[in-house]
Amino acid sequence: MSRISLVILSVVFLFSCGTEGEAPSAVGPQNAVSRGQGPAEAQPASEDFFRERVEAVGQLLLKHQPEKAFELLEATWPLSPPEPFLTRLRALDLRCRRALRDGVWMSARVEFSQKNFEMGAVVVGEVIVENRSSEILSIPATRAVSSELEGKTEETSASILRTTVTYREYVPDGTLVTESDVGNFFLDRDIRLDPGETRRFPVDIDTLAHNPSGLMLRTYTVSGRIYAPYVLVGDVELPGPVDVQGATIRVYPRGAKHLAKRPLERVREAFRKSSPIHLTLAASYVQPDELRELLEFLVTRMEAPETSEAMRNALVACFQILAGDGLKRDRAQWSAWAKKRIGEVR
Predict the structure, then answer these.
(1) Per the domain annotation, does 39 fall within a domain?
(2) Average pLDDT over residues 125-139
């Protein structure tokens, strides 16, 4: 059994006590012209018209205006676009529906009550599915499919929430320990959300499942994906699967909280005292407004010939924490990465 403990407390979606904020007033699918029901004044269009229409839809998508792009596409289908414009418009339509799915008409995300926890704390988060449109959002739990193998018998295809938990352990000697666990959970009933409504999966992480006595920072990143036969917003079908935007929490050893006060000062002090553990933990607490100063300090110490081997390894661990991407780089590559980030930080 995997050491990672991710427990979906209930596969049954829980009704939220209310909506999370007001439903957006953005254009919903009900405002689009349905295919085959174009404007009465629609007339056969020229190739120049369709060429301009392809360009206009593409520009709207580049400007992150998928709702306007979708309206324009829906008004175009009744005009019977010829090839090669039909193929191009269909490709744009798919891009448009994906954009509407990914944060415009709906949202699927992981949330935790806070970002930092202490070893042994009970960590409970949620996978949240939210309807951000002005129409009903529907995701079926199952669908009937026909099987040709057994004389066209009816079978059932189930919708699945697949979760991925990635655990990282930032050892002060520069060792990065990474483990991942994937879990599949069947939806036991359909999702049907009114505008602004949410449904939630509680998520529980056992922080004692990994090296509870270790004096290092560790992180848990939870993400996911919903596999369903279709997603409907009103009568508009959105393509699947639906990605669940992930979230990361940090778990600190007991007694590390004092390093969060004036963390940059604590970093300098830890380096001066040659304390790899305190250096890495304090560096993780540094806020964005002091990130540039922190990076400059770390790079300078990494390139200083008098820096000890143990502290160089600890500096690598600091860079790993700040990058958070799980990639392994040698010391020269970390210095280059840090200098690049310094140029990006204001």
Answers:
(1) no
(2) 97
